Amino acid sequence: MAEPSQPTHSSVMNRIDVEPTMLVWACARSGVPRSKLANRIPQLPEWLSGKKRPTLKQLEKLARATHTPLGYLFLPSPPEEPLPITDFRTVGSGVRGTPSPDLLDTLYLMQRRQAWLRESLIEAETDPLGFAGSARLTDDPENVGREMRRTLGLADGWGSGVRSWQAAVGQLRRAIEDLGVMAIINGVVGNNTHRTLDVEEFRGFALTDPWAPLVFVNGADSKSAQMFSLAHELAHIWLGSEGLSGFEALFPGGTEVEEWCNRAAAEMLVPERELGGRWHELRRADRPFASLARSFKVSPVVAARRVLDLGLIDRTAFFEFYDDYISQERRREEKGTGGGDFYNNQTTRVGELFGTKVARAALEGRIGFQDAYHLTGLNGATFRKYADRMGVRLP
CA-CA distance, 387 to 355, in Å (whole number)? Predict the structure, then answer.
């Protein structure tokens, strides 16, 4: 008796029953143009219309392309995806849509890292940070800003020894990490340079915790705004009020919390007492804001914003300067070349504080190397070289 013929691969290929509305939702949620998705997945239009069904492998490909958790695609209707932290954003009209996958994935990644570091520090019987959540909205934010400055070790005139305000951003970030606060500046999701974070969606956020607080600054933002954002998010840590920030022209207003953090950050970066004397000397100079920026090692935009805060110029003068400066800065950044040294980038994307703790845990056998790779987004020899840069030599 002849053996029955074996079915071909195509005849046993299982098709997945998935609601076309869920596929439409995943495409819209991703923010990727549907035409671009269709170029990558030619069968997509037929799936969306319900004419054909995808295989599991094809569905997995769509999930990756749209940055959608695969399990979501099997739901009967789109899930609610609320922000896991308070929304303090005040950009544009103030109307907020559904958070993008890039924002959500960044928030979840930072929360996972914070949770790991918190557990690690508690297991080591580390004391909580006294300054985290030490301030109240009823406190004078300028006094708190001065306390933040003292705690960071930024003495009067600290900027005189710093080469430039761009270098001062790095020095401030390191000073924040020295306090025990994870300070991250990143313009992409993890290390995925194809997923750029949208400045129009958010500028930064703070995750509060007594042991492992975290501040995150959108590295896709203009360089001139990053120092202000660092200080602003650090004020959230002092206040113990975590949330997402978004603001235009360095005006993070709209809520009592944001106004408070703005004032504390401004005093921390450019103390009123020091600014008053310098402005009297420089106000008639050709480039007074650039001169102030050199003195305080902040960007000219931050200097101008502080002068406005103190009523020394009006809003018209500020915005004339701001719009011109930002347009020039964008042209300079467009002319820039390359993305810098990969391992130096990891210092800001992962953070020395977190990266060193993970590398030491792997060295001491408290976590496996696969866990270390997952936590940092670095693998194999890349992780080992990064750890070496952090002063942790792995076997």
Answer: 7
